[in-house]
Amino acid sequence: MRRQAHPNRTPTVLIVGNPNVGKSVLFHKLTGRYVTVSNYPGTTVEVARGTMRYRGREFTIIDSPGMYSLTPITDEERVARRILLRDRPDLVLHVVDAKNLARMLPLTVQLMEAGAPVILVLNMMDELERAGLSIQVDALQQQLGAPVAPTVCLTGHGIDALKELIYERLTAADLSHRD
């Protein structure tokens, strides 16, 4: 699914996830650009693009409409799937509501089965903790075989660690493509 590395090309990161999990807030935290956030169907069909600058590198960040599955039913899901397949991003951030992890993991698995390099972003960790729940992040990472980043996008908690993870994953990918 990943496109061929090119030394002068800016790596692309696609943000995906169900509606209302914090994708647009994460987009703002990574790029500094605001996106209109709406909580009803048909409002986020346009796609936002921005640039994240981190440790001397630039990364193109794409905020996609909400989706539940790689088998699209709605126009929003069709747009998100088209971006995933057409743009073939270098990295996919699957943002989930940590309180509803079990309901959202099937999309993570679909993305990984499709060959997408995924980081699972466990957003709203503060709400999970307020509900008296917890997630064993290390165990989840091992089980998935993919990085997991706990965040609270509204406050910025975990965003710096996520930026570092994005940098590490894409820098390692660049180096492995040059061999």
Short description:
By secondary structure, this protein is an alpha/beta fold. The chain contains 6 helices and 6 strands; from the N terminus they run E-H-E-E-H-E-H-E-H-H-E-H. 39% of the residues lie in helices and 20% in strands.
CATH architecture: 3-Layer(aba) Sandwich
Report the sheet-strand fraction: 15-25%
Give the helices and strands as they follow along the chain: EHEEHEHEHHEH
Write the CATH homologous superfamily: P-loop containing nucleotide triphosphate hydrolases
As for the number of domains, it is 1
**Main β-sheet: number of strands, strand sense, barrel status?**
6 strands, mixed
Counting copies of identical and different chains, the oligomeric state is single chain
Query: Share of helix among residues?
Result: 25-40%
The rough form would be described as: globular
- pLDDT averaged over residues: 87
Number of helices: 6
Spatial gap, N to C terminus: 19 Å
What would you report as the Rg, rounded to the nearest angstrom?
Answer: 15 Å
- State the CATH topology: Rossmann fold
Unreliable sequence segments: 37-44
